[in-house]
Every structure is written in C-alpha cells, then in structure tokens.
Amino acid sequence: NLIYKCSNHGAAIAAIFDEILAVPPVQLDIIAVTKSLDIQYKKPIEIPNTIAFEVHLKSIFINPKGQREIESFGQLISFNENYYNNKIIHATATGLWCESSLLANFIKSNL
After folding, report:
1. Residue 32's CB: how many other CB atoms inside 10 A?
2. How many CB atoms lie within 10 A of CB 36?
C-alpha cells in the first residue's frame, strides 16, 4: 500500500492521456480512433499534489487511405510550491488519431 501513498499509477496516467489528447479531433468535429499513444514517464508525482494536463495540436494530414490523421502532444505537470511559473514535467505523450468513417456511420445510424 505504501507505493500508492507516494506515487501515481502509470496506467491511470495513460488512460487520462488517451482521453485528453483526443480533444483536438473532437474540437475539429472529426470522429477518430486512437492509432498510437507514446508516453514518456519522467518524474514521479508525489501525493498529495495538484497536477494539470496541457494539450497541443501538432499536425493534421491525410494518410494514403484518404483519412485525416491528427497528431497531438501533451504534458502532465505540477508546479513548484515556491514558484507558480516553475512547472515540473512528470510525463509527456504524443498521440495519433485516425478518422473513422465506420465509427461515424455507426454513430449517425444510432442517433
């Protein structure tokens, strides 16, 4: 039980990255599925702590099948107690989402 008192589980962080890195496709009104997710864990998170996730759109391109692919980047951060502008990076992630006409058609037919 001691491990949960002083750090956070990587799978929980991965699940949150999978959700928040999908924000750019949603904002662009593109129905897409996760194609890849690469996470780099850099520093443990001490508990209790206040954390935040940052998300940025990196690129949009058309793949050889004619589908749009959206690449986004994110960071899991916390802030030094003494300096709000001094952010501590705990993990970074890059995700790639691929437009899915199959999923879009399923959603449209079930609304």
Report:
1. 21
2. 11
Alpha helices in 28-110 (DSSP H): 101-109
Q: What angle do CA 64, 68, 69 make, to 5 degrees?
A: 90
Exposed, middle or buried, 72 (CB in 10 Å: 0-12/13-18/19+)? buried
Strand ranges across the sheet with 68-80:
32-41, 83-99, 68-80, 51-62
- What pTM value is reported for the model? 0.80
pLDDT of residue 103: 67
For 6-38, the pLDDT digits (tens) are 556 788 899 999 999 999 999 998 889 999 999
40/49 Cα distance (integer angstroms): 20
